[in-house]
């Protein structure tokens, strides 16, 4: 029997070999071979976008990916993938969702995803794409233009940059387009979708004429605000006479006419403008083009010759007149002569035509000049008073801060406002244009826990910021009272309410913009009509050079500063605000100034807080007080990477609040 034994052994050997290969493929994570395409795509997306493992997607013997969080299926295929506000952190890797060809709705908004967007052209059935309130960057995702069924596109509150592609006009079903709070540049395409009813491109760097299409004309100027370079009837800003209405010239250097000009010329009955197009392939048109170009060259040569002669004659006249007046003037240099030669004469008095970039700078300068010496109200704010009324108002000093002096102003119409007069020495390094753009961005922030900025004013050496007046004073006065009174901590449930209010306002600033507060302290928290805590002076410290707002000789100011910013090694950021928030929580719980807070371990810190509060509430050791101390401790982590975001802090506080409400209901 030796002969049949050998083939049998070989057979078992191959069986075991292939079985081991199958097991190793499964154990190594090659899930695409054993899973449906949709499930494999979801797991691939999770591996790059969920670095903190918040999505509990798992595989069992009887798994059903259609039951996973945020997933909705129809006939076994994923049609909705919605993970809004899910705490995702990571990137949207290429190819991860490309196999979800039946996907109709994709929502990843309000997370912490970063990096560029992958190619989305494979999602041919996509109708709604929500990617707002993340940290995506890179150019506009041009693959979106191929999604012809797309109705909603929201890329707002990200870091996208570059041009908005003109091909966006092809999405004829689009009814919502949100691109605000990014870094897009260049002209705005002539969007004219008949169904477009929600549109916003505010707070970008767009330039040029806003196309007066029927669709864009339906939206107010607030949809375009925060773009200093835009002009036209829609935004109520006149374009300069030399404004390049055709937008940006192509890279090849050949001047061409963009779609906005062609559309506007056609719709307004203007003269037809002919541009270079690859479709003009007939010999007749090529000959016409050659004749036109040749004639243009001849004319330019003649004009240049005349310009040179006129310049030389004028230079001699200037030399003769300078001797008579005894004024020493320089003769035109060779560079000047070349520049004059290259400048064609215009119908108007001859002036040097600047480049496109120079045009933008001149326009921005004139716009800043127009907005200097006038009271500029925030977008959407009614103009309830004039600069003259404000200057005539009776003023009462409320306090002097690190960035300026605050006054209570009562106007002649009995309206009361708070006026912040910024320190000219500390903000001198910030130019007028930068200040204007910054205040326009700050003026857009609206939240119940923010004191709204209503208007601002700037002139030479003078800058004012106008807030609402809050009659109930500051949190500092509530904690520390008058100088004669002894500071005492608030009841810990009041502390919980105030910390939630502050976290709400601060989280909104971080999430809805690229701004930070920069100077969190109890005197910058005011109490509203219902004693809700409202942040003020937000984002004003960034107008001053790094470190100049904080007084290094003031121990409280030093204690509030995050360790990484005390020697100006790093610029202040959102995690610096988180550190100052932790210091504020300790100030609330103990009634002690920040410089009196010791650096202790968490158990020792809890013991210190309870000891300080003994005289106030009898030393009651409520375990939820310890939870609030723990929040303060994690916010005060030395390493910024170990600190949570403000939204994470807010969720911690809300969990504590839930436990308080639950215990009160069972009591």
Report what the structure shows.
This protein has 667 residues and is an alpha/beta fold. The protein has three domains: 216 residues, Leucine-rich repeat, LRR (right-handed beta-alpha superhelix) (Alpha-Beta Horseshoe); 95 residues, 2-Layer Sandwich (Phosphorylase Kinase, domain 1); 196 residues, Transferase(Phosphotransferase), domain 1. The protein has 17 helices and 22 strands. The radius of gyration is 32 Å and the shape is globular.
Radius of gyration: 32 Å
The CATH topology of the largest domain is Leucine-rich repeat, LRR (right-handed beta-alpha superhelix)
For the largest beta-sheet, the strand count, sense and barrel status come to: 7 strands, mixed
CATH homologous superfamily heading of the largest domain: Ribonuclease Inhibitor
Strand order of the largest sheet: 1-2-4-6-8-10-12
Q: How far is it from the N-terminal to the C-terminal residue, by CA? A: 85 Å
Q: What is the level-2 CATH architecture name of the largest domain?
A: Alpha-Beta Horseshoe
Q: What's the CATH first level of the largest domain?
A: Alpha Beta
Strand segment tally: 22
In terms of DSSP E residues, the strand content is: 5-15%
Unreliable spans: 8-33, 241-292, 316-370
Mean pLDDT: 76
Question: Helices and strands: which structural class?
Answer: alpha/beta
- How does the overall form come out from the CA principal axes? globular
Helicity, in percent?
25-40%
Treating each run of at least 4 consecutive H or I residues as one helix, how many helices?
17
Count structural domains. Answer: 3
């Amino acid at each position: 029997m030796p002969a049949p034994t050998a083939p049998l052994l070989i057979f078992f050997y191959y069986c075991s070999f292939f079985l081991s290969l199958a097991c190793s493929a499964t154990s190594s994570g090659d899930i695409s071979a054993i899973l449906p395409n949709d499930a494999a795509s979801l797991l691939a997306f999770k591996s790059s976008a969920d670095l903190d493992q918040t999505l509990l997607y798992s595989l069992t013997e009887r798994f059903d990916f259609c039951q996973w969080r945020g997933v909705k299926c129809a006939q076994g295929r994923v049609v909705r993938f919605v993970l809004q506000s899910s705490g995702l952190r990571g990137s949207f890797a290429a190819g991860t969702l490309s196999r979800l060809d039946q996907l109709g709705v994709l929502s990843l908004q309000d997370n912490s995803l970063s990096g560029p967007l992958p190619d989305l052209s494979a999602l041919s059935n996509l109708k709604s794409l929500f990617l707002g309130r993340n940290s995506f960057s890179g150019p506009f995702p041009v693959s979106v233009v191929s999604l012809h069924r797309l109705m909603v596109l929201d890329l707002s509150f990200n870091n996208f940059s570059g041009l908005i592609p003109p091909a966006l006009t092809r999405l004829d079903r689009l009814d919502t387009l949100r691109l605000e709070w990014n870094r897009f540049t260049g002209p705005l395409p002539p969007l004219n979708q008949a169904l477009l009813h929600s549109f916003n491109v505010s707070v970008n760097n767009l330039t040029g004429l806003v196309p007066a299409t029927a669709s864009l004309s339906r939206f107010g100027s607030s949809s375009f605000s925060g773009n200093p370079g835009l002009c036209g009837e829609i935004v109520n800003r006149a374009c300069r006479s030399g404004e390049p209405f055709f937008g940006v010239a192509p890279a090849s250097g050949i001047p061409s006419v963009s779609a906005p000009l062609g559309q506007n010329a056609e719709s307004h009955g203007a003269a037809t403008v002919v541009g270079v197009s690859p479709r003009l392939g007939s010999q007749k048109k090529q000959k016409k083009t050659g004749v036109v170009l040749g004639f243009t060259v001849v004319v330019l040569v003649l004009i240049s010759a005349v310009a040179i002669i006129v310049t030389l004659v004028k230079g001699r006249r200037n030399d003769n007149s300078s001797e008579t007046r005894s004024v020493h003037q320089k003769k035109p240099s060779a560079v000047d002569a070349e520049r004059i030669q290259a400048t064609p004469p215009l119908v108007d008095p001859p002036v040097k035509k600047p480049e496109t970039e120079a045009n933008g700078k001149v326009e921005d300068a004139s716009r800043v000049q127009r907005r200097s010496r006038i009271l500029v109200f925030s977008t959407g704010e009614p103009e309830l008073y004039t600069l003259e009324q404000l200057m005539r108002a009776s003023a009462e000093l409320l306090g002097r801060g690190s960035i300026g002096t605050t006054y209570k102003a009562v106007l002649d119409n009995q309206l009361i406002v708070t006026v912040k007069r910024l320190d000219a020495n500390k903000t001198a390094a910030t130019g007028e244009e930068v200040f204007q753009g910054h205040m326009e961005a700050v003026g857009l922030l609206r939240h119940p826990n923010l004191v709204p900025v209503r208007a601002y004013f700037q002139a030479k050496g003078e800058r004012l910021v106008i807030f609402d007046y809050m009659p109930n004073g500051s949190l500092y006065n509530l904690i520390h009272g008058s100088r004669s009174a002894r500071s005492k901590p608030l009841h810990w449930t009041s502390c919980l309410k105030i910390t939630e209010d502050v976290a709400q306002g601060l989280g909104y600033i971080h999430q809805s913009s690229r701004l930070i507060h920069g100077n969190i302290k109890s005197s910058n928290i005011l109490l509203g009509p219902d004693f809700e805590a409202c942040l003020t002076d937000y984002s004003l410290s960034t107008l001053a050079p790094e470190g100049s707002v904080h007084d290094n000789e003031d121990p409280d100011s030093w204690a509030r500063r995050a360790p990484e910013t005390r020697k100006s090694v790093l610029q202040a950021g959102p995690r610096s605000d988180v550190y100052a928030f932790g210091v504020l929580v300790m100030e609330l719980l103990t009634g002690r100034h920040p410089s009196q807070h010791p650096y202790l371990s968490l158990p020792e810190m809890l013991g210190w807080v309870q000891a300080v509060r003994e005289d106030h509430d009898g030393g009651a050791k409520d375990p939820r007080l310890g939870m609030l101390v723990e929040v303060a401790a994690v916010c005060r982590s030395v390493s910024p990477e170990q600190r949570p975001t403000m939204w994470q802090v807010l969720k911690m506080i809300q969990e504590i609040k839930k436990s308080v409400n639950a215990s009160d209901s069972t009591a």
